[in-house]
Design brief:
Layout (H helix, E strand, L loop, with lengths): L1 H14 L6 H10 L3 H13 L3 H13 L7 H14 L8 H11 L4 H13 L7
Length: 127
């Protein structure tokens, strides 16, 4: 399962647009298993609405890498990434697959909370 997850992440990275700076730095940190740095760099991008960063942030929360494992937060970020598609892929199969996986591990109350957070989410303006 870990190998499959890593392969999916690498595929998403290869399919995504070339984004200089924090996104690439965070991806490199993730690949080095420096999850706290990846989180620190991806979080502001995800907050601003970057679908690739949202997808990866969801993975950090799903796996509990650099953060406490939190299925509600994972579901939130996968839902947000899926709603935009990633790299022009309508329906975003990557985010959708991850969201379905995390949903299967959540309680009904957790699902309701994640859906509420997604409905209320607003992007942070860029500085």
């Amino acid at each position: 399962m870990r190998l499959l997850s890593l392969l999916l992440i690498l595929l998403v990275c290869a399919a995504g647009p070339a984004v200089a700076g924090s996104f690439e730095d965070a991806t490199a940190a993730y690949e080095r298993r420096d999850f706290s740095t990846a989180l620190r760099l991806w979080r502001p991008l995800a907050d601003q609405g970057h679908a690739g960063a949202q997808l990866r942030l969801g993975r950090l929360y799903y796996d509990g890498h650099g953060v406490a494992q939190d299925y509600v937060q994972a579901h939130l970020w996968f839902t947000l990434a899926e709603s935009q598609g990633y790299a022009g892929f309508p329906g975003n199969a990557y985010s959708q697959s991850y969201r379905v996986l995390v949903t299967s591990r959540m309680t009904p109350a957790q699902r309701v909370e994640a859906q509420r957070l997604a409905r209320e989410w607003k992007p942070t303006p860029t500085r």
